Amino acid sequence: MITVHEVPTLRELIREARAQNRTIGFVPTMGAIHEGHLALVRRARAECGFTAVSIFVNPLQFGPGEDYQRYPRRLPEDSRLLEESGVDLLYTPDAAQFYPPDFATSVEVAGVSDGGEGAIRPGHFRGVATVVGKLFLQVSPDVAYFGRKDLQQVAVLRQMVRDLDFPIRLVAVETVREPDGLAMSSRNAYLAPLERQQAAALSRALFAARDRAAQGERDPEKLERQTRSELEEAGLAVDYVEVVDGATMHRPARVQPGSSIAAAVRVGKTRLIDNVLLLEE
Amino acid sequence: MITVHEVPTLRELIREARAQNRTIGFVPTMGAIHEGHLALVRRARAECGFTAVSIFVNPLQFGPGEDYQRYPRRLPEDSRLLEESGVDLLYTPDAAQFYPPDFATSVEVAGVSDGGEGAIRPGHFRGVATVVGKLFLQVSPDVAYFGRKDLQQVAVLRQMVRDLDFPIRLVAVETVREPDGLAMSSRNAYLAPLERQQAAALSRALFAARDRAAQGERDPEKLERQTRSELEEAGLAVDYVEVVDGATMHRPARVQPGSSIAAAVRVGKTRLIDNVLLLEE
Prior knowledge:
Two copies of one chain form a homodimer. The first copy, chain A, is of the alpha/beta class. Chain A folds into two domains: 2-173, Rossmann fold (3-Layer(aba) Sandwich), CATH 3.40.50; 186-274, Pantoate--beta-alanine Ligase, Chain: A,domain 2, CATH 3.30.1300. Chain A has nine helices and ten strands. The first copy, chain A, has a six-stranded parallel sheet with strand order 1-4-3-2-6-7, sandwiched between helices. Chain A has a three-stranded antiparallel sheet with strand order 8-9-10. In chain A, strand 9 and strand 10 form a beta hairpin. In chain A, helix 6 (124-139) crosses helix 7 (151-164) and helix 8 packs antiparallel against helix 9 (220-233). Chain A starts with a strand and ends with a strand. At the A-B interface, strand 5, helix 6 and helix 7 of A face strand 5, helix 6 and helix 7 of B.
């Protein structure tokens, strides 16, 4: 695995790989690599001849008072995990170079960014679209891999890629979970032992909603209400519970193929999100 | 010259040209081709092995009540002029395909977009950055050519390219003028004969400011004031007259190398812009 920090070197290595007719797979991350990231890497390696991973904690997607400063940073361990997973190239841009003081450009995706996370974290998806757009232009991959755990992020980026005609295929990879169902997330590291136990109620409630949908429940409001009360009974503070269409992030009138149930909760000071597909497409 | 409307065909032709080691030069236009556009084409042909031109009247960069509907469209004549000038590829996207009904993404460049044209035409530069960003991703040129007449547009696009790391070099080409100094513009076609005579006062006043700068005048306010009164005396309605730095579009405290004087005026119903470099960089 070659580690690069500078765009010219990055581009040279990508050019070389492409000259060897290797398809370029790209996994953008904020580091604190876990099994969820490694599932993306495995998928990229299975589909592409050359796998690039970036690690960059993107200040633009954190709001004031959010966890930008304390977001886990552990490059040496991340680097070891990625190398062991067969990554070809690790790109770790320097924040001051990535966003120089006069940086002034933003990419915004209306509509799909508005609800859910976007409503609670204003500017978050503008930060995501801007950093991913820039990373796409720097790395110029053929395929990019994202975790389905960040459902709305995937929807925002799909819309960006389609609208601006990035010559890149987006692949959403199924969420990887702990044995008790908790979705893998770098933020799980914040949880104290008791909070960690409580946190399992998030996926448990979402899977219970899926079971009710499988048994025929098609009313989004009922599913949301039941899920919310289960989360609250487990002592979780609910930011939102929403049945959404995974492509548009609109709430369907009735649960239909492609509908997911998504939720954000707080456990102590830690904010967790998760979603589960209610009906297969 | 091959004319294409669809992105897959466009990309295939660009890929073939690149496989032949030809540098891709790109001239995005809104059509109504005049000598100003042809100067961009000549420059592209001198520097690149393959010259692509797009013609697309971009609805996003027109405000309500502006001239989107009546903007001149004359594809057959444009096509002939471009072919005679040695253009290799003409890309004429279909508006409904370019902006499908659910199109929702925008690219915005803060700061440099705010004053001048941006202040008078809200959303104009967001429309410009969005269309050019998308065209850049569709065409993927090595070099792109823009007319210096649209000084602020060049500044906005330079900042976008730098911020998002488009792997594209931007070249600004000197304004081409009619014998009486009027900058070439597709909108000159709107001018009635008497208005056409009046319009010459715009460049005349800007060149007079340059002469005063050459004679030592360094006070932006004085230059602006004198230029404004000359424009008004000639019967032109002044939207703005501003001394600006061509890179930042900020007004310098004193005229310095790289300072330009830019103005927008209305002659009857027609709005014209122009600018002149006050001191060589």
